[in-house]
Amino acid sequence: MKIDYIIPMVFDNDLKWRDSFRQCHWIKYDSNNNVTRWRSMGTEELLVRCIRAFMPFVGTIHILLARESQKRPWMDNYGIHVVYHHEFIPPQYLPTFNSRTIEMFLHRIPGLQERFIYSNDDMFPVSPMQESDFFIEEGPCLYKQYMKLPKDFSQFAWVCKEETQLLAKLFGVDITEDTWISLGHGVTPMLKSTYENVWDLFPANILGSITRDRDWKNYNQYLFAYYQLFHGSAVETANNTSYADNTMPLADVEKTIMNAKGIVCVNDAIKSNDFEKFTAVVSAAIEKRLQTYLEKTNYGKGTENNTAGDRCADATPVSDKQRRNGGDNTPHEEKIQDQVAEKRPVDKTDSPAPTQEKRGKGAKNNGKRRFRFDS
């Protein structure tokens, strides 16, 4: 059985989405707001192509969208299952602009497999990966590092501290009150049954934490990952994620992507350089990594050996429209190979105009660039 992959996405140039944002916040969505949490880098399709090429053990890719107007034409390809918020999040919590709220209900996604990987849309596989990088027989593979809450702690660190303390108490683990667990800034392998167990244990806590926008009382996805660690259903592993963001010189961003092994996180930071130049460098570097690999492995050209990405036979069918047509007898697996191998320019219509952001005086500096604890 293949592993599912979940990615929430937002396309902030969608006028209907912006109208919903305005109605909930009574402010216009523009460069005067902190838009980095929602703005698109235009690399979403490239991410999916990388998953298909470098992670052949992935079956269905579930893309989570706020509304129908968010869907992009390319989502009819690659074995994608588009899931709208109303399909798995109870209506009393919608609309939401809080990824932590979305993360509380992942187990309700229709058709979700027991094993899945949860990822933000800025986590790119850029070299061949194995199923054992994420799951082995004993369970999900997770990086773990105990941390002390600093004096200038961020909201993210506080939330993780609260979750760590909750699970430590449940399992009788003795840790200090200012301790929390870092999982690194990467993708998270999960079990659907873990979600169900944690909901059974803490329904009131979880429901009481849910808000439309980010809040200090929110829980996030790490509540479920921590349960796996304390419960012993996860296996500790090394951190295989490289990191770059748009506070770095563009040459360093490109170098990080080109030298990364496994996953590279390319973060749209609050304090940023020229956004359009940054996204152009990111897109070009990741596309180069992908095309170099496809050419080296003769991907999708009928080679005798199965190269990474060649086995997608049990992925979700392409689209209802394609199923109805019925005239194309090309196997679904070969269609996905062709889609991945096709070099496509970034669609700038999916990206908002570049904005200039400044960090407010009250913002927290999280210090180590490696983890950037603000997700």
Summarize this entry quickly.
This protein has helices at residues 15-25, 44-54, 99-103, 155-170, 192-201, 203-209, 222-231, 250-259, 275-297, 320-325, 332-341; strands at residues 3-8, 58-65, 80-84, 115-118, 123-125, 135-136, 139-142, 145-148, 179-182, 188-191, 235-236, 241-245, 263-267.
How would you describe the overall organization of this protein?
Helix 8 packs parallel to helix 9. This protein has one domain: Spore Coat Polysaccharide Biosynthesis Protein SpsA, Chain A, CATH 3.90.550. It starts with a strand and ends in a 34-residue tail after the last helix. 32% of the residues lie in helices and 15% in strands. It is of the alpha/beta class and 375 residues long. The radius of gyration is 20 Å and the shape is globular. The strands form four sheets. Strands 3-2-1-4-10 form a five-stranded mixed sheet. A three-stranded mixed sheet has the order 5-13-12. The protein is built from eleven helices and 13 strands.
- Helix share bin: 25-40%
CATH topology: Spore Coat Polysaccharide Biosynthesis Protein SpsA, Chain A
Low-confidence stretches: 302-327, 348-375
Q: Helix and strand succession?
A: EHHEEHEEEEEHEEHHHEEHEHHH
Please give the radius of gyration in angstroms.
20 Å
Strand order of the largest sheet: 3-2-1-4-10
Range of strand content: 5-15%
Average the pLDDT over all residues and give the rounded result.
Answer: 83
In DSSP terms, counting alpha (H) and pi (I) runs of 4 or more, how many helices? Answer: 11
Number of strands: 13
Give the biggest sheet: 5 strands, mixed
So what's the overall shape? globular
Q: Which class do the helix and strand fractions yield?
A: alpha/beta
* Number of structural domains: 1
Q: State the CATH class.
A: Alpha Beta
* Distance linking N and C termini: 30 Å
Query: In the CATH classification, which architecture applies?
Result: Alpha-Beta Complex
